[in-house]
Amino acid sequence: MVLLSFDIEEFDVPVEQGYQSFPIDQQLEISLRGTEAILNILRKKGVRATFFSTVTFWESLPKDLRNRICTDGHELASHGVFHSDFKVEHLLESRQRLNALWDGAEVRGFRMPRMMPISALEIAQAGYAYNSSLNPTFIPGRYNHFFAPRLPFSDEYGVYQLPSSVTPLLRFPLFWLSLHHLPLNLYIKMIKRTIAHDDYLNLYFHPWEFAEINKLPNCKLSYTVTHRSGEEMCHRLERIIDALLLSHHTFGTASDYISSLSD
Q1: pTM given for the model
Q2: Which of the chain's ends, N or C, has fewer CB atoms near its CB within 10 Å?
Q3: In terms of Cα–Cα distance, which of 105, 139, 126 is closest to 254?
Q4: How many domains does the chain have?
């Protein structure tokens, strides 16, 4: 099964890169535009996805857009309360606050911002059924999970761990930066080989990647982040969905996948 997921959050990359005064209203507006672009693509292709949202971003969304995410059959999961500030109590708080604003099924999953480490026990105590915070590879300056499990597993507390996909053997990460920078045909070849080997593909992106963040006034972000953002990234997402559909792979939400494991 193909699991597409999107970490919908405040666009705080400028702050992370030194633009401390980048306004929160603009952070939210950029991610709003990207979220709309993503939803249009998913509806056009007829596939469903999981949206890991911060409470801050979810509360900023117009009600009709929140309703659309529900009525189009997507899943809502937690990405914390804020993207750049985390406390353990935010695990339960974010799940409860998102549940109160969500007309779909109960919020069951969590992803830690920036895929940072999070206690499996604390995830279980906050009532989550799954956690998708593991990227089982080595990213210099970020984390080293090269020897962590590549495939989903149930941890000692009964919570399903859904790692982000990496290639077999070399564990090349197939996350958002790879789609930005690899030749598209190579990226498609890699994800198709990975799902053929694993019968599992978990790809994640962010809404601001699908906005024109390379054209922000008074804010020049790194090439690593802005390369192929906006319309070109929309085109690339459509191409990878088309390639996987053509190969007869099915798309589903994280909860769909967990349900399939217990069938």
Answers
A1: 0.97
A2: C
A3: 105
A4: 1
The pair of three-digit structure tokens given for residue 7, joined into one six-digit string: 């970490």
| Number of residues assigned to the chain | 263
CATH number at residue 175: 3.20.20.370
Q: How far is CA 102 from CA 21, 63, 86, 148, in A?
A: 32, 10, 22, 33
Encoding tokens for residue 17?
């890169």
Q: Look up the domain containing 117 and give its range.
A: 2-262
The residues, ordered by sequence, that sit 6+ positions from 93 with a Cβ below 8 Å of its Cβ are 55, 81
- What would the two tokens of residue 153 be? 């597993």
